[in-house]
Amino acid sequence: MPLDGQFNPVNTNMTDTFPKLLIRNADTLGDKTAIREKYLGIWQSWSWREKRDEIFALANGLAALGFKRGDKLAIIGSNRPRLYWGICAAQCLGGIPVPVYQDSVAEELQFVLDHAETSFVLAEDQEQVDKVLEVKPNCPSLKTVIFSDSRGLRDYEIEDLHDFTHTQKLGREFASSNPDYLRTEIDKGTGDDIGIFLYTSGTTGKPKGVVLSNSNVLITAINSVGLDNLTKDEETLSYLPMAWVGDHIFSYGQAYVTGFCINCPESEETVGTDLKEIGPTYYFAPPRVFENILTSVMIRMEDVGSFKKKLFHYFMGVARTTGTAMLNGDQVSFLNRLKYGVGDFLIYGPLKNTMGFSRIRLAYTAGEAIGPEIFDFFRSLGINIKQLYGQTEAGVFVTTQPDGEVYADTVGKPSPGVEVEINDDGEVIYRSPGVFQHYYKNEEATRETKNADGWVMTGDAGYFDDKGHLKIIDRAKDVGKLNDGSMFAPKYIENKLKFFPQIQEVVALGKEQNFVTVMLNIDLEAVGNWAERNNIPYASYQELAGHPEVYNMMLENVEKVNKDLASDQFLSGSQIHRFLILHKELDADDGELTRTRKVRRRIVAEKYAVLIDALYSDKPDCHIKTEVTFEDGRKGSIEADIEIMNAKVFEVIDQKTARAS
């Protein structure tokens, strides 16, 4: 089979599972680097042959400890080679890997371990082991825990708690006594077998276990590899949660199909540094990461001298008018190309190098809509960033943007092998080879989401434009109308506000109300940097968020968005009338965000009901007391008097007038 992934697994059972692809890659790629990890400041590497041997030793070790076909192996921790190996090791034995978000609190962890009926856990370190041991009495199926990092665990004398190295030793001994066992189990595997459980983020309730077969993941990976001409020579940085479907496709599925190398950073704190050292050619990040990168760039520019600042802004103007056109292959005059070349030498090249983006051939963003200004900023630098639209239930890919057809306001055309339609209610629906089998132990939710013909209801409202590109408006259940009949799409408004580097998170309100209001979170790094430069002292997030000058800064941003909305033919009635700055950051540990950083609107609405009522009154401020979860798991509370500010609403103008102005 060719190494570029261009093959049809329907025609052969030799490569219809990932363990079989592992064997193929070890045989054909041999000494080529398959995976790296930065440890104590040094990059450690494993070839495909070494990776196969490590996985086989672990798989045999699991077998020696009693793991058998159909058993589930929960995997919890940061992106580590050993944890990725655990996914394939479980599949070698016909088992099912179940990655869990590494920052899950005990209650969230317990739900997944118990619901999935996991019998084995592969945990990264003492922190994760302690969480597993805490919930183990409430998980009757759970028997065995294996840990990768032994620091702090050497004196744990607990039955069925095993070191990773010891497990591999057991595996090598097991293989000596049972030399044909593992290959026999691998040969039993088929594309129709269940390959993985991936739990949704749970924005509206308990997470659902999405059941994907080997073929769901494999065929999706093959099709996406062909679309973007990915090869074995790509380099990626694997830093997003292993429990998220995007990481499973990009760092696992596509890596096995093509044979390219994935790189695991030393820690979350070193991702930026490690990114620069690796210089990936293929990169994925949700919009929040690109927002944070842009915020960091703009903060640094505030600290440079006036000449450098003027130079930066001048050439960024050149990039906006020329860079995207050049990237799209449009005609650009010689003079503009010359200006862009000078800008690339002085500004764009050094800036991309600082961000670690110098070698990027393809970058994707997805998960939620990215602000058009942010999207255009990176493309203007010559970075081929594109949007895709996907779901866990689709194995990621629903639509993608083809080269030469990249637009800030669309999510592209149907991906290879995917059918996409808009139903009578305006909801986006699709079917594809990647469509999930069912939700584990949740037949009712499966029937609500996937019909008998294999069509999946996304829950998103959207439409196809005249170029055949899909546009997503918002979650169908969130799109509504104001009392005067004006359309209200909260996510659209939120994304426009989050373009400003001083704003970290936004919750827009307005459905069945007389006007739109918003609750804001400031970006502590950006606003803190501004405060230091302006000699404004503060002792906490709460104190900075309530500062009058910060409110004035937010007012300016809100009114800029209102002015822009005034020229929008659909959303001109959704201008923001009142806003407040929350006294605390929305936090996943407090249940306000999912582990993928999506707002849980129902919980936020319940928790901050007193503030919402005040926003829709004539009150100038409101007192609130809020329960919070500290880093060590303890509960506490904070209270504050929060100011509510009115914003200017602009006269609605038509689009032609807006463009002329």
Outline: globular
Beta-strand segment tally: 28
Might you state the CATH topology name of the domain at 9-229 and 237-267? Rossmann fold
Mean pLDDT: 91
- Share of residues in strands: 15-25%
- Please write the CATH class name of the domain at 9-229 and 237-267: Alpha Beta
What value does the Rg take, in angstroms?
26 Å
CATH superfamily of the domain at 9-229 and 237-267: ANL, N-terminal domain
What structural class do helix, strand and pairing data support? alpha/beta
Extract low-pLDDT stretches: 1-13, 655-661
User: How many helices in DSSP terms?
Assistant: 22
Order of adjacent strands in the largest pleated sheet = 4-3-5-6-7
Query: Which CATH architecture of the domain at 9-229 and 237-267 would you pick?
Result: 3-Layer(aba) Sandwich
Explain what you see.
This protein is an alpha/beta fold. Among the domains are: 9-229 and 237-267, ANL, N-terminal domain (Rossmann fold, 3-Layer(aba) Sandwich); 480-660, 2-Layer Sandwich (GMP Synthetase, Chain A, domain 3). The protein has 22 helices and 28 strands. The chain has a five-stranded parallel sheet with strand order 4-3-5-6-7, sandwiched between helices. A five-stranded mixed sheet has the order 12-13-14-15-16, with helices on both faces. Helix 9 links the parallel strand 10 and strand 11 (261-264). Helix 12 (306-327) packs across helix 14. The radius of gyration is 26 Å and the shape is globular. The relative contact order is 0.08. Mean pLDDT is 91; it is low at 1-13 and 655-661.
